[in-house]
Amino acid sequence: MRANRLIPFWLRNYRRQWLLSDLTAALVSGMLLVPQGLAYALLAGLPPHVGLYASLIPLIAYAAFGSSSAMSVGPAAVLSLMTVSALSPLAAIGSPEYIGAAVVLTLLSGLFLFAMGLFKLGALSNLLSHPVINGFVSGAAALIIVGQLPALLGVEADGETASVKLLHVLEHLPQAHLPTMVFGVATAAILIFSRIWLPMLLFRLGAPKQLARLGARLMPMLLVLCAIGLVHWLALSDELDIVGDIPAGLPEIVIPDWNGHLVFQLLLPALIIALLTFVESLSIAQALAARRGERLNADGELLGLGAANITSGLSGGLPVAGSFSRTAVNAEAGAVSPLAGVLAALLMIPVLLYLTGLFSDLPLTVLAAIIIVAAASLFDFRGFIHNWRYDRTDGIAMLCTFIGVLLFGVEVGIALGIGLSFATLIWRSSRPHIAVVGRVPGTEHFRNVLRHDVETQEEILFLRIDESLFFSNISAVEDRLLSELKRHPATRELVLILSSVSRIDGTALERLHQINKDLRNRNIRLHLSEVKGPVLDRLSRSKLLEKLTGRIFLSSYIAELALRHGDEGEPIPEEPA
Amino acid sequence: MRANRLIPFWLRNYRRQWLLSDLTAALVSGMLLVPQGLAYALLAGLPPHVGLYASLIPLIAYAAFGSSSAMSVGPAAVLSLMTVSALSPLAAIGSPEYIGAAVVLTLLSGLFLFAMGLFKLGALSNLLSHPVINGFVSGAAALIIVGQLPALLGVEADGETASVKLLHVLEHLPQAHLPTMVFGVATAAILIFSRIWLPMLLFRLGAPKQLARLGARLMPMLLVLCAIGLVHWLALSDELDIVGDIPAGLPEIVIPDWNGHLVFQLLLPALIIALLTFVESLSIAQALAARRGERLNADGELLGLGAANITSGLSGGLPVAGSFSRTAVNAEAGAVSPLAGVLAALLMIPVLLYLTGLFSDLPLTVLAAIIIVAAASLFDFRGFIHNWRYDRTDGIAMLCTFIGVLLFGVEVGIALGIGLSFATLIWRSSRPHIAVVGRVPGTEHFRNVLRHDVETQEEILFLRIDESLFFSNISAVEDRLLSELKRHPATRELVLILSSVSRIDGTALERLHQINKDLRNRNIRLHLSEVKGPVLDRLSRSKLLEKLTGRIFLSSYIAELALRHGDEGEPIPEEPA
């Protein structure tokens, strides 16, 4: 029984007939893991074989805890960018110190993820709103693309910021290295073609729809093999920058250099990487689970991603997460369970043992093209337009995060985005919507006088407050209340409809006391209606209910009935305390 | 006409019969201004005469814009503490650099206040919740008291933090300077007595109630004069630390030393001082206006306080604000208009011209006693107990601010408080209250099933969401929704009651789409009821309304009627778009 609980949930219920599907999916997604692993390791400033190592044990570790049926965990472009951005101020890219720091960074972010899973802190991911994530990913994609242009075109270009680098690239374009450029641009063009038109072409040529899509997705591996063939055949290995020797053999466990100062410096970047890993992976897994009608265990995902990053740290140091593109391929190829991921990882073993020599002739420009095309697909123009239309403040938060990433880098960009999200939240709640309402004739319902044909009473003013009352908005509420009383000078009874008020904090309570007192001096009674249970509980601990000049009504309709007829003596149902 | 607009509002409508009242009030509050000015200038680390200068032109400048009928503007204990805390890291207390920096600090905070008035940014004061202000003021009061103990008791005591200083004082108590201690403790004892028992005593002796209270309030000035007399008569001026020479004559305009680096260093402290000045002064003025049934113009107050601090900066550099104690005295003495403040300021002219010699023999321990007793009255125990009972989070914010001020000083303390206020706001809105509701039998009202005897339907689940939907809480809402569906497995129709939802942001909208899709797969229809106008406007810009499996109902009652009878064809009043 106890031993049984150590076996992952999905494995306990595994059915034999799933094996073929999972194996097919593993073969297909494994074909993507190789070029992406090499490319993203280079992007992170690490030796290419680290990308292959990160595609082996971490995938198995994820499957031990994770529950998503088809999410493909492994190296990811945005995380690689964050790695290089966090580490390059600390050590020269590619130096032993750099690689050591990458190990610590990945381990730390894995530990953060695992701890978040243990303590069930999945809710931390709510710190990031979708617009901020979209803005961040789009900004990171732009940085990645500009960063890869020199490698793609064979030009020299330096520059602190993306725009300076882009200018340098354009300036030096006439000195571009022609063979590099031809290889790179051709690869990029074929990849773009195969993303956009190839599925349709294959479909028209008679391939089943699913196969057509899959075929197009496998283009990166095909191009990698073609490029290696061409370099070998045309003897271009001296002419082009190539991957170079990749050590054959399985990864060995790296003993991390736990240096207190380094750990301290990497805490914040590791936390940000952990948060992004979780948010990105979870949104992929959730979308998938929804499509398949499965339920996802967020804390299990956290443990899985944590284990994956801890093992990735110990086997080389490239952060891993759920990858959008590989997950799509994995799902389309028919993955039924995390076993597909495990099998894809096992495929990495023969690659590492026997095929590393093959990849040494791979031109870097081909990897740059793969990175660029993958990054370009991360742009979310439609999401931006949608956000801008639906909610201007969301659009602005997205734009600011995007620009922040471009101008100040990934860390500042994401901090800006989170700050903006919360500033928006606070700003909105400090400008509450307040409506003068009247009764819809013939019903018991009260609606905004500006939007509906409603009946109002001259002496009774109904105000609906559409926000909880807090220190940050009580002044605005008071101002509005006084200006409405000025507009309705005959008012003798003011009814505040608190149907939307879920909390009243101490500051707001004090001010309500004051308002009640002021209105008494003006011979206006203050009533409350539709007070929610929790609010009433709280209010009954204060003196407001005692001092209130008016009454508390179950509904606005009852309030109107009572106040219009002045039936002070009639028993009216009030909210039980 | 135009010239008329330059004359302050209160002066245009001034009635001659008010003059006597205002003059009386001016005489009385002027009697308080002298000792408080001297004391708070010393507290701020400035020469005592600066406190008198700050009680002259700034009061007139305030009256040119301000509208409060009896608020007494002038030096204030908390601001003096903030001044010394901001400036002492930059220059030695009392040095010319220190005094120059005080000028710049006061000017800057005046400029901030004036600019906030011009741009109508009075709402900025909403950054500070009452509990945070209470905690801050109480903490500052404790710092002030501990800081004045050495001067009061005539002991030497250093120490970075308040607790260390207090320990030093206690340690060195046996070496206290006896005459200083006698003067100081006696003054403090008489002041405390005159605050608590003297009004009652005078009243019992036959004085009218108001006069009795006023008499007690004038005790500081009386004690100052007695102390000066005693020092003179007993020739104690060599024995005791005394105020020393005060230059006679009116203040001259100080040319501030605008040094870019200094200005930059003082920006943040000046902003905090400006915010606190405004919040403190406004709450005093508001309380007063409420009692007198007057309306206050917050932007005018900002301009007035700004002008007061700009002129105070130019005439010496002690920040000024509305003072709680002096305002109470001013109001009790019958002040009817800001003219009382102007007249009190004019009284400062003969003091500065002819009476400065008188105050040179004033023992510092007497001023320390005045400061300590004034600071002690700033403690707000009752407010703390009240906050703690009414709203635990408010109580915690107050306590943390208080402790923060004590341990880390005024700036860190207030930053902590503001941060905590907002963290609370965010934390609360990320844990929305959600209730399963049912219909109160015989009515159209829906109430929480846990609190009321209500009717529910097996196939229809009504959930009321008591918070706007945001990125920070949509996960919590989704989790609750799924767990309620698990608890009510027969549910075929889910009605979300959005009566409390004032906004749905982009992240929440996306998730609602997803929830709608997931529920469709489970054969559950999703309906919305009581959607507010602004929310519906926003939603109609998205595709949710198209894709919604269920409908939008004007009220939950209509929803129940329609869904229970399955009257799909019947015309049901829906919310107009």
Automatic annotation (TrEMBL), chains A, B:
InterPro entries registered for this protein in UniProt: SLC26A/SulP_dom, SLC26A/SulP_fam, STAS_dom, STAS_dom_sf
Topology with respect to the bilayer: Multi-pass membrane protein
Subcellular location: Membrane
Keywords, sorted A to Z: Membrane, Transmembrane, Transmembrane helix
Principal subcellular localization: membrane
Residues in STAS domain copies: 450-548
TM annotation in the entry: 49-66, 73-92, 98-119, 131-155, 175-198, 218-236, 266-290, 333-355, 362-384, 396-423
Name of the protein in its database record: Sulfate permease
Native source species: Microbulbifer elongatus
